[in-house]
Amino acid sequence: MALFLKLPAIPFPVSLRHGCSLQFRSTATPTSTSTSTRMALSPHNVSFHTHTTTQKLPILLFDIMDTVVRDPFYHDVPAFFRMSFEELIECKHPTAWIEFEKGIIDEMELARKFFTDGRPLDLEGLKDCMRKGYSYVEGIEELLHSLKDNNYEMHAFTNYPIWYEMIEDKLKISKYLSWTFCSCISGKRKPDPEFYLEVERLLKVDPASCIFIDDSMRNVEAAKEIGIIGLHFKNADLLRQDLSLLGIGISTNQTKLAQE
C-alpha cells in the first residue's frame, strides 16, 4: 500500500497564502518547440490574480511515468534497439537523456550523442516506438476522472523532455491535470529540492496543502523533506484507498467516462 510519509491536518485549509488566487485556463497542449520559447511560456495554463478567494485543497501533484502513463523505456525501447535493457544501459550516453529531460539539449543533439560509441540513432523510429508504448496505467484514468469530478486541482510533476507533448497528443491528459511542472520547462529534475520548492512559489500554497504521488520512493522522500505530503504509488486501487483515508472525496461515474 502507498506509504503515508506525512499525515496532514484534516480538513485541509482552504485559503491561499499571500492574498493571491489562481485561475486555471483551458489546458490546451503546448505547441512551442524551442527551449527558449518554452521557457518564456512556462508554466503552462496558469494565470495569477490578486483578489482574495478560496481554493479547494489539497492540491494533487502527479508523477507521470509509471504513475499515470506506462513508461515504454524499460521494455519497448530495448526491443526497438534489439537489445536487453542491461545492454542498452551499457552503451547509451550516461547523461544525454537527463540533459534532454532538463531542456539543456534538443532532440537532434540527443540523437547525436545518445550512444557513447557515436553510432547513428533512428530518432523518428525511437519517437514512434515511444508514442506507441504510451498508455494509461491500469485504473488511473478512472481515478483521475473521479478526482476531476470532485473538483480537485491536479498538476503533473514530472521528469520528462519535450516529448511530453507526444503523451498529451495521444492520451489527452490535460482533460484531468495541467502540465505545470515539467523538468524540460523548469530545468530542474526530481529529487532536486529546488524543483519541489517551485510548487510553493508558483501555486502560493503551503507545502502541507499538497499531496505528491510518485512510484519512486526517492522522489517521495524528497517531497517529504520540504513538507509536501507524499504517497508512494503502487497501483490505482491502493492509491484510491489511500487518498480516501486522507479525506479525499472520490466519486465514481464510470458511465460518464465510458461516453467520453
TrEMBL record:
It holds the Pfam family Hydrolase. InterPro entries: HAD-like_sf (IPR036412), HAD-SF_hydro_IA (IPR006439), HAD_sf (IPR023214). It comes from the Eukaryota. Signal peptide: none annotated. PANTHER family: ALPHA-D-GLUCOSE 1-PHOSPHATE PHOSPHATASE (PTHR43611), FLAVIN MONONUCLEOTIDE HYDROLASE 1, CHLOROPLATIC (PTHR43611:SF3). This is Phosphoglycolate phosphatase-like. It comes from Prunus mume. The lineage of its organism: Eukaryota, Viridiplantae, Streptophyta, Embryophyta, Tracheophyta.
